[in-house]
Each structure stands twice: as structure tokens, then as C-alpha cells.
Amino acid sequence: MPQQHPELAEEQAYILHAYECLEASKSDALKIRDLTSAGPGGTFQARLERNVFDENVVHRLEQLDLGDAALVFGRIDRATPSENGDEPTVEAFHIGRLAVADQNREPVVVDWRAPVAEPFYRATGRDPMNLIRRRHFVVESSKLLALEDELFGEGHLGVGHDEGLGGEDPRANIRGYSTLLTALGRSRTGQLGDIVATIQGEQDEIIRSPQGGVLVVQGGPGTGKTVVALHRAAYLLYTHRFPLEDQGVLVIGPNRVFLRYIERVLPSLGEAGIEQVILADLIPDVQFGGRESSHVARVKGVKKMARVIEKAVADRERPLLKDVVLPFGTSYARLTVEESRFIVKQARRRYHRHNQARRFVENEVWASMARTLRGEVDPEDVRDQLRDDPAMRAVFERMWPVLTPAQLLHDLFGSKALIKSAAFGILPEADYELLHRERSESVNDVRFTPADVALLDEARFVLGPRLRRNGKIDDADEIMTYGHIVVDEVQDLTPMQLRMVTRRSLSGSMTIVGDIAQATGPLAANSWDDVLQHLPSRKEPRIVGLSVGYRIPSQIMELADKVMLAATPGLRAPRSVRDGDELPLILATTSQADMFAAVVTRATELSTRDGRAAIICPDYMVDELSDALTAANMKHGRAQSAGLDQGLSIVPASLAKGLELDDTIVVEPAAIVADDPQGLRLLYVTLTRSTRSLTVVHSLPLPESMR
After folding, report:
1. Which residues are 252's β-sheet partners?
2. For residue 243, cis peptide bond before it (omega within 30 degrees of 0)
3. Neighbours of 524 (CB within 10 A)
4. What does the pLDDT look like over 405-449, one tens digit per residue?
5. Distances (CA, A) of 227 to 233, 324, 325, 392, 479
6. How far apart are alpha carbons 569 and 640 in whole angstroms?
7. Could you tell me the pLDDT band of residue 649, with boundaries at 50, 70 and 90?
8. Are 366 and 492 members of one domain?
9. Could you tell me how far CA 76 lies from the centroid of its own chain?
10. What CA dihedral angle connects 432, 438, 440 and 445, to 10 degrees?
11. Within this chain, do residues 37 and 177 fall inside the same structural domain, yes or no?
12. Residue 223 belongs to what domain range?
């Protein structure tokens, strides 16, 4: 890359001008906010309008806060043909993170999502999209370090040609190749950064694709599928601000380590209001932390569990075992078994959700008991006199109890009889017997497991919201829906978890990303059909692939590909766009003690480098490795609690998916394979986390595919 471009100073001055305009916009927004915060006076309508306006100003200020992110990262020079045959008009547009205008409202920076910016990402030598030049900036905040120009037109090929490169070489279609390598060569910070300055054509096509329906993005390690999905969320909000801003956009990640890793991407793109969660966050008022075997998780993940939950709810809608007779004045009010059976039948017929029928059951019971009394007795009088009687509370608890999802599962899994009643004829006996666990004294003591999340959600749907005493629905029990949903690592979700995701889709609009070769869940998908059959089908789903690996050096991918081919023979690995400086280092030891010593030695060597390093190991080995590092006075963190904030982190293999590091040490591959039903796929994940160096340390024989 040239160190000194003749227009470097001119472009630097333009960038500084853009920052001045940005600061002026912030000042204007603050002044407007001051004008609207004149106190609580005025009519209700005036206060409401003032609050809404203030919220919009605050949102604008959040968008204008870039932190250390670069405002401007490129420029396009576009030729507009003249209608009368004169020379075409050339316009220059500076492309940046958000739109900025000067005091005359003339555009200074064009938002990267705007239609006029599309050629910056999509123009090729074959289709220049009227460009005569595309300029890439290497920028640190407001400081311009270097420029890279691509010229189009006669005598200039631009990108999208094969001259000097093989037709299969992915570099043939890379735009801003030197700029891209510079970005990829920067040390990791422990959190995922945006790629807004270096988005490539195949990525941009996905980002700007139409909103409707389910879009599947298949991408191997290092192809940028996660950041593409996040940039797509930001693009859709920009393009469809109304109604998406009101409907909401939801991003679902596989675990909290991953969420912490990606949390800065969307705010850096000016979209801080998008909700980012793991599935457990969507279940209120429940405590998690329980553990169970992969066999139990597999049973809980099958689609038939929806029928089990439905039957478990139906089992709590029961007629009385014997008549109830209670004194009322000088007479007796009676509820017969036959009458209770009729009320339950009517409630099931009229209502599809359990809790919403409770008020109907109560009213029918009081009416029925009133009819058994002499004269015309108001059912309300019966209710007022008998509702606090323990016998009546027992009647309603028997016939139609108000239940929370946690109560339903607590009762169900704590009773072998209830499990058998709900699952008999739906699941094999050997499977449903696995669902039983020791009953806790209170539902508040239960620590639910990750596999319970989708079952709690299914129960929440079947039970429906509870009714308050005033007859209104408890809003906390309602399931929120969203205008667009992004799901990362979707290949690991079970059918029940996919039902949970689908339930939250307002219109069936989703972006789901993953890699079948990295599927390691309890019911790991073997094809995208396995996933799509459980997602919205209002529109034909689209499946697109990312074929180029940007992050991982070719030397590391060559080793990882051997494992991938053994795990999933029918899949094609992504082609790496760059070569690294180091070959994978494999260190063989003869004992676990020697292996730990080798890990400490290698970690000490890596600690002298910039960036982030991680030791990826079998989950059971985290404590022992941490003790070995502590004994050697090696400062380190654990990914479960600290993310990748430390220069050196220990990452359990089960949490490695989606992470990006400069250097990795993979410990005991054979144990990683042995500890997981999809062990080879999990090993493939661990081998493909590094952008610079990979070290493998082992004492057990390596898996055959690595030898």
C-alpha cells in the first residue's frame, strides 16, 4: 500500500471538516433538547409530544456518538452520462458510518446504507455501476493513514477479473485488497468490530437483500457471517425505519460469552436500540443454572415435546372426584361431579389457552352452585360468601388451576406419574423416563437447564397470560413479537428452540446464520432442511452462501479442513483470502502434567505479542489449566465470567463458537472429540478461531483426521 498519496492531505482536511460538521450537529441537537425540556407544564398532549420529540433527539445524539470508530472510510467518484452528448458529470461522494451535512444542509458524508453508497461495495470491473474511481481510506478515528484507489473504465479492470490469478482464487474479486489486509492484520481487542469499511460484494448482496421471509446465510469459519447478519439488521432498520423501529429487531446469540463479544457492533453502526439476547433472556421470572446430560437435552429438544406440554396442561383440567357440598345460609350449595365435568368440557371447547379460561370456570361454578339453592340466588352472593372457603380453593385447584410455566414444569418433571400421563404414546418410555428429576421443595428453588428454556416457552404459550383481579391480562405474561429476527449459530438450535424463535416473529422476516459443519447441538442439523421445517414458511426461504474466508490464514484452514471433511464429508470449505506467517504448531507430550507445562510455556511466548490469545480446552479441564497458569504467575481470565477482556483467556470448547482471536492454543483434541456427541465438529470449531497462529498441545493420540 502506498505510504504517501498525492491527495492524502486534501482528504485528511475533508475528514476533519466532516468531524466539525458532526460536532455542529451534536450541538444543534443539544440546543433543541434544551428548548423542549422547559418543565412539566402544559396540556397532557403537549407534554406527550414534547417527550416523544425529546426521545427522538436523544436517539439522534446516540447515533452521533461514534466513540473511536472512524466516521469516513471511503469515497466514490461517479460519472452521470449527459443527455445531450456532452462530457459526463462527475460527482464525488464520501462514504461513512452515518450521514453528515454541513450548515447549509449539503451532504458531507453519505451513510453506508444509502442507495448511492451501494457501488462502493458492489462495483466490479465487469459492472462498474458508473464509477470511475473507488477510494479506500485506512483511518484511525479521524487520522487518515493511507489511501488506496481502484480505477474503472477503459484500461482499468477494477475488481472482478482473473488476470494474474487463477479463476478459483478468491482474491480475484476482493475490493480494496490492501485495505482489507490492513484491517485483518490489526490485533483483536476481545470484542468483534464492524466491517463497514471493508464489506465485500458477496457480503453486501446479503446485507441489502429484501427483508421478507427467511434468509439463510451459510458461512464457514472466518467468512464474516455474524457481522454480515448484524450489518443487515442495521441496514434494514435504516431502510425500513417505519415500521421496524416500532416493531423491534431481535438478535439471538448462542451464549453470553458470544453476546459480550458482539455487543459493540450495532452501536458502532448507530443502532443502539436493537435487543440482543440469548434464548433464556426471553423467559421472565425463572432462574437458570441447572445441568443435565446430553441425552436428556436431546429428548427435551424433539418436536414431540410440544404435544407432551399440551397434554400436561390438559391433565390439569380435571372434573371433581366427588361432589362438593357447603353450607350457605339455611341451605346447602352443591357442585356435582357431573356438573364439574360439563364445565371443564365447555371451558376446553371455548378457550384455546388455559389461564384465560379460569374466569369462565369460576363463573360457571358459582352459577351452578346457585342453581342448587332454593329460590333465586345471585351467583355473586355465592361467590362472595364461599370464595375464601378452603374447600372451594381446592375445587378450583383441582378443576382449573392458574399456572405459571415454571410451576407446570416443576410439577411435571417432579412426578413420574405426571410424566407418564403426559408422554405416554408420544415419546418412547426410555425417553420420557429421562425427564424425571428430584422435586425441589419450592418452584423458587428450581434451577432450570438450557434445554428447559424452549419447554418453558411452550408452556407459556399453551397456558397463556394470567388474568389480574380486575380481569385484565398480565402484560408480563405476553410473548413479544418482532418485525425482524436475527439468529446466529442457528444450526445448534433444537426443533423446540426453533419453535420458540418462530413464535416471536411478527411477519416471518428473519436472517438466520450458521454453518452445518459446526453443528454441535444435542440435535445437530445435517442440512438446512432440518432447520427450515421449523421456521416460518409464508414465503419461500432463500439460502445464500459465503464462500470466502477472510479471517483465518490458509495454513490453519488446511489443517482444519481435514477435520471438517471427516466430520461432514459433503460440505465444501471456504477458500481463504490470505496466507499467514506461521504454520500450525503441534506439540506432543507424554503426560497431562507435561502437557500443562507445554501450554504454560507457549502461553508465555504468546504473551509478548499484541492482541488477544486464548487457550481452548475440554470443558472439564478449565479449572486445572487455570490453576497451572496461576502457579506460573500468568495473568489470565475465564471466558465464562470475563469474556475475552484479558490478553489471555481460557475458553471451554463448548463456548468457542463465533469467537475471533489472534493466537489460540487448542488443548487435547482427542478429549474434545470424546466429550461431545458431535466431537469432530466441535474440534473443527476450536481449530478455526485464530487470525494469526494456532498451537495444538496434546498427550493423547491425535484424532485420525489430524495426523
Report:
1. 277, 487
2. yes
3. 21
4. 999 999 999 999 999 999 999 999 999 999 999 999 999 999 999
5. 10, 63, 67, 58, 28
6. 32
7. very high
8. no
9. 33
10. -80
11. yes
12. 214-284+477-548
Spell out the SS3 assignment of 412-463.
Answer: HHCCHHHHHHHHECCECHHHHHHHCCCCCCCHHHCCECCCHHHHHHHHHHHH
On whether residue 299 sits in a domain, the answer given is no
Please check whether residues 136 and 39 belong to one and the same domain: yes
Q: Locate cell 462530457: which residue?
A: 87
Residues of 129-155 as b/e, b for ≥16 C-beta within 10 angstroms? ebbbbbbbbbbeebebebbbebbbeee
**Boundary residue ending a domain (399, 419, 443):** 399
Whether pLDDT at 522 is above 80: yes
Q: Please state, in angstroms and rounded to a whole number, the distance separating the CA atoms of residues 90 and 88.
A: 6
**Rounded Cα gap, residues 647 and 606, in angstroms:** 10
CATH of the domain at 612: 3.40.50.300
Query: Pairing between strand 690-698 and 661-667?
Result: parallel
Query: CA-to-CA distance for 667 and 621, rounded, in angstroms?
Result: 9
Let me know whether 260 and 387 are in one domain.
no
525-533, Cβ contacts within 8 angstroms, sequence gap of 24 or more: 525/491, 525/492, 526/568, 528/216, 528/218, 531/216, 531/490, 531/491, 531/493, 531/498, 532/214, 532/216
Contact 253, 265 (CB under 8 A): no
Integer CA distances (angstroms), 26 to 96, 241, 592, in order: 17, 21, 58
Q: 421 lies in a domain?
A: no
